[in-house]
Amino acid sequence: MKIKTKEILPYFLIWISFMYHGSILKSQYSTLMDVVAIVAIIYVLSFHRETREKGIVTFLGLLLVNIVFVRYINGGGLGITIWTRWMIQIMSIYSAYLLNKEDFFTRFIKFMAFYAGISLVCFTLQMIGIWIIIPPSITYGGMQFKGILPLHVAGLHGDKVGRNLGVFYEPGLYQIPLNTALYFILFFQDKMLMSIKKQNKYFILILLALITTKSTTGYIAFAAIYVCYMLTTTRSKKQKGFIILASLAVIILIDSLLNGENSILYNVVIGKLFDENGFNLAASGSGFYRVRTIEYVMEVIRKYPLGAGYDIYNAFILSQKQYLNELVGVECLKAFAYYGTPQMILTYVYLAKTAWKRKRNIIQWILVVFLYINTTMAQSEIFYPSLIILLLLNGDSEKSSTSK
Fold first, then answer.
1. Strand, helix or coil at 139?
2. 116-149 CB burial, b ≥16 within 10 A, e <16
3. Dihedral angle sign, alpha carbons of residues 246, 248, 249, 250
4. b/e per residue, 206-242, with b = 16+ CB within 10 A?
5. What is the spatial distance between Cα 249 and Cα 103, in angstroms, rounded to a whole number?
6. For residue range 252-298, what is the model confidence (pLDDT) as tens digits?
7. What is the pTM of this model?
8. Rounded to whole angstroms, how far apart are CA atoms 65 and 112?
């Protein structure tokens, strides 16, 4: 049986977008991955006219113009490599959608279910000690990982231990495509070319993978997705939803009673939001450093409203010797400092407006905007592929007339 290129390409592009959420494979083979991704995108644009959408090409062109502008007025630090990364992140996932809009959601779910299954098996082996036979040959950011790069990695230091990282260096990155998959299953059931029974199986598999990441950002994102789903779905589906919600609550309660301060609830919620003095957003180390980062970023924005670029921003941070190595997250705010306030306002307005035009209802629009802010406040990129596809698609696409 002959396999058509158009059937393989979408999966390959989804795989590329998956790795560009911050995988260890991408960090270890960055140049090679960039070349492969660029060749794939050029091929798709050259031989598949349906992927040449004017709006997204114009958007990427304006991003490039802004990088050149900021570099011109404030010197180095921004260049073509930044734009190339953005282009790959956006076009890899969006081209996969444009190649075959009707099949995209089904393919994305199947892909994520495949990786969720692998990660759960490997995570189980990791937790019972079998993973120790793999040599710790991977080093990233001063930390060591064990793993088979295209499939799964396990952290050996700090808060990475005992958490499902998938193929990433941080569980907060793995939760992004996992939550996007859960969003698609809940909100786009009419577009899935698979039975409801199979959708439910994939939902449980992907949800288990999300739970094992122990990512606070991921849990908040899923909670928001589920609440919005319950607000917009039918009565019969709400009843099933309450059963799932109650089951999760019972599991969390039992885990808290048995494990106390080692429970998921304590580690990912209570320990990060409360200290001995009560509620405190800076109660955890990352929370404290994120607050400090926001203070520094706002100072740079005030001094350089049209964009400081990386060099000036980094020079300012170097002058703030205290907490230097612990400035984390808030990338959606850092973007104003790097690339300019008016420019980023236009960028965010474009994304929000696109999501608004394609919304099914206002709750869904608020949800995708929240998911973007929730993640980019915690992480270090502004164009994670799985977040961008939520904003670019939201509720858009022809309804599927077939169910397999």
1. strand
2. bebbbebbebbeeeebeebeeebeeeeeebbbeb
3. positive
4. bbbbbbbbbbbbbbbbbebbbebbeebbeeeeeeebe
5. 34
6. 666 666 566 566 655 655 555 555 554 455 545 555 667 777 888 89
7. 0.87
8. 35
